[in-house]
Amino acid sequence: MTDRILSPYSFKAQELQLISDRFVTHTDWSKSCFDGIKQAVKNDLRPKQGNLCCYCKWELGFDIKEVDIEHIVPKSEYSEYTFHPNNLSLSCPGCNTNKGTKPVLSVPITAYPTDGINVSIVHAHFDDYSQHIERHADAIYEGLSPKGRRTIKLCKLDRLKDVLKKMKDAKSKDTQIAQLVAELVQTKDTQRSDEIMLELSQLTEQFL
Ligand SMILES: [Zn+2]
């Protein structure tokens, strides 16, 4: 598992120029002129994070809205760090949404931190994840430190237990459906066919 991002995104001169020309405050983040920069950040950080969300360590998706650029220190609180390389990491939309704009600094700052001491959650660039959070069976999160426990709370990582259960339920339902369909194709027993159709209708709620 990737423990932390070893090198941040490195902005190119023309990207820095664009930011300097077009960025005033954090709401400018959504301007389309920055789309190219955002894509470049995602492309750069994906392999550096092993394609995992920096908070829950679940795999990141590839469709739009399946990966977010996360501002570790909320950009609404410190808009000057909206494009700070060490403030950018990739997260799943679930973690990003739950974390929202909740404050993560223990004391206010005038310069971006260079280590994780003043940051109350696991900082993707400064902190080794495994020192703060241990993950069991993919979806049980154990906080090993105050930082780890706060990350679990802020991002609501406990939600993933339910997500995993739903995934497993859906998969077992899929398997049952596939088995029944295979049997239906083969059986010559009309009574059994009717039983299978009934079972399928119960499983899919759309037959009959
Ligand atoms: Zn996540």
TrEMBL record:
Pfam families: HNH (PF01844)
Source species, domain of life: Bacteria
UniProt KW keywords: Endonuclease, Hydrolase, Nuclease
Membrane-traversing stretches: none
MF annotations from Gene Ontology: endonuclease activity
HNH domain sequence ranges: 53-101
Keyword Protein biosynthesis (UniProt): no
Protein known as: HNH endonuclease
Annotated organism of origin: Pseudoalteromonas shioyasakiensis
Source lineage: Bacteria, Pseudomonadati, Pseudomonadota, Gammaproteobacteria, Alteromonadales
